[in-house]
């Protein structure tokens, strides 16, 4: 009975999604300027990231000039247009359901445009609709002549009940290495010191936005890998970010990279966690003391069905912000790995390589307060946006 009650409680805490409409991944969506306006409107590109490919159509209407994108079988949930990255590039953006089976996005444009291209790229668990807009002279603007009012029947944007800090949202920052383990070394600089400086600056920025921050270390001290995860769990962390700046042979790697857990290693991770942690220190809110390895592994894998996609969602938020803010990234900015600090089954976790200390440009960036300030803004914006998205999803589950 005790085991059954534990499983039922986890089912309530970590619901499994069935066949559902596509959902907007606002962290991977954006409105971006793709060039200079040279005195007029800038070329724009609308990117809508969805959890699966759906039929869509895009067209222009007038009075004022607007881009309309209709998407089938799509739920925007409580995502707010004002939280779309780049929303300030347009006078107004609205979205919502407009008739059965369809939702609509309306972007009021800062001038007259034409649709240069539109397409959808589908991947295994994500699809992106991209509409590229090129500015044109007023006489060349060719909106749909018989379009009805594009804003008809669209609801007012939903307001979230609280900001991340209002509900005690907690981020755990994990500056890698420390103490007798300096990490990578190059030109008299150590990885441990560089990531600690960045982490302290990021902590200050997050606290200023009302977010609770815990750090696995706040000075030049050594913290064992297992202890870092325990610290995150004891802090009831909502997000765990491990920060590094590794070294590789010259020319082999440069740019920021985000790592998430590799699900193919779940069985091995469960075994190692069971051996190296107390059973009461594996899943927050559940004491697995007295349960055998098989059941412990099953429960940890079950919990990961919730945390793994949330970790991947944050990685998309983060790399999207880095891309749009011009932060140099590795050619494969999101990768999967089996780092120990990513093993926690119950806390969404990523490892962020800020750059490679072995690369001259990356090292110069890490030493530059202006670059660090820009990167701090990118990471804090991604955290706040992802936290709001998480709150919206939680609100939908409660309804």
Automatic annotation (TrEMBL):
Keywords recorded for this protein, A-Z: Hydrolase
SMART domains on file: Ami_3
Signal peptide: none
InterPro entries in alphabetical order: AMIN_dom, MurNAc-LAA_cat, N-acetylmuramoyl_amidase_3
One Pfam family named in its UniProt record: Amidase_3
The reaction(s) this protein catalyses: Hydrolyzes the link between N-acetylmuramoyl residues and L-amino acid residues in certain cell-wall glycopeptides
Domain MurNAc-LAA: 229-384
UniProt-listed Enzyme Commission number(s): 3.5.1.28
Source superkingdom: Bacteria
UniProt-recorded name of the protein: N-acetylmuramoyl-L-alanine amidase
Organism: Paracoccus acridae
Organism phylogeny: Bacteria, Pseudomonadati, Pseudomonadota, Alphaproteobacteria, Rhodobacterales
């Amino acid at each position: 009975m005790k085991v059954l009650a534990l499983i039922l409680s986890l089912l309530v805490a970590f619901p499994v999604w069935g066949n559902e409409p596509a959902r907007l991944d606002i962290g991977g969506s954006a409105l971006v300027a793709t060039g200079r306006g040279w005195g007029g409107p800038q070329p724009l590109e609308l990117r809508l990231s969805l959890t699966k490919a759906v039929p869509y159509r895009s067209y222009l209407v007038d009075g004022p000039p607007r881009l309309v994108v209709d998407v089938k079988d799509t739920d925007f949930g409580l995502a707010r247009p004002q939280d779309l990255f780049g929303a300030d590039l347009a006078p107004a953006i609205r979205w919502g359901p407009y008739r059965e089976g369809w939702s609509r996005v309306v972007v009021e444009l800062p001038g007259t445009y034409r649709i240069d291209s539109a397409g959808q790229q589908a991947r295994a668990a994500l699809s992106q609709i991209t509409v590229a807009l090129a500015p044109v002279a007023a006489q060349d603007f060719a909106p749909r002549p018989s379009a009805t009012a594009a804003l008809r029947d669209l609801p007012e944007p939903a307001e979230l009940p609280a900001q991340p800090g209002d509900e005690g949202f907690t981020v755990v920052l994990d500056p890698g290495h420390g103490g007798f383990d300096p990490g990578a070394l190059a030109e008299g600089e150590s990885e441990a010191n560089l990531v600690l400086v960045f982490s302290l600056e990021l902590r200050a920025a997050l606290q200023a936005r009302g977010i609770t921050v815990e750090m696995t270390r706040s000075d030049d001290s050594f913290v064992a890998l297992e202890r870092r995860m325990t610290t995150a769990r004891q802090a009831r962390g909502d997000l765990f970010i491990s920060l590094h700046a590794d070294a590789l042979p010259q020319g082999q790697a440069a740019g920021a990279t985000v790592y998430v857990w590799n699900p193919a290693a779940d069985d091995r991770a469960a075994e190692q966690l069971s051996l190296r942690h107390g059973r009461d220190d594996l899943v927050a809110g559940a004491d697995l003391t007295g349960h055998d390895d098989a059941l412990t592994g099953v429960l940890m894998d079950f919990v990961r069905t919730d945390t793994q996609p949330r970790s991947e969602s944050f990685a998309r938020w983060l790399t999207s912000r880095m891309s749009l803010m011009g932060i140099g990234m590795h050619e494969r900015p999101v990768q999967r790995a089996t780092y120990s600090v990513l093993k926690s089954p119950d806390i969404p976790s990523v490892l962020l390589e800020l750059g490679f200390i072995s690369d001259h440009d990356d090292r110069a960036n890490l030493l530059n307060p202006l670059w660090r300030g820009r990167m701090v803004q990118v990471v804090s914006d991604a955290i706040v946006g992802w936290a709001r998205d998480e709150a919206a999803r939680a609100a939908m589950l409660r309804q």
